[in-house]
Write a structure and sequence with these properties.
The chain is mainly beta and 65 residues long. It contains 1 helix and 4 strands. Strand 3 and strand 4 form a beta hairpin.
Length: 65
């Protein structure tokens, strides 16, 4: 391995953008979480059914600086 490869490596960001999806209606939004944290689950108001529902993390969208 060359010395230049070691010096030019990019550091991983601390936070990532993830896609959250409602377990009831399929409504989606994005949220930010730390890279090393567990997958997100939260209760939040769902505009499709006009009630609070459970949202689960579906996939990672991108890294944040």
């Amino acid at each position: 391995m060359f010395l230049t490869n070691i010096l030019l490596k990019k550091a991983k960001s601390k936070n990532i953008l993830v896609l959250m999806e409602s377990a009831v209606s399929g409504h989606q939004f994005t949220a930010i979480r730390e890279r090393l944290a567990d997958k997100l689950e939260m209760l939040r108001f769902d505009p499709y059914i006009q009630k609070t529902s459970l949202y689960r993390e579906r996939k990672r969208v991108r890294s944040l600086n």
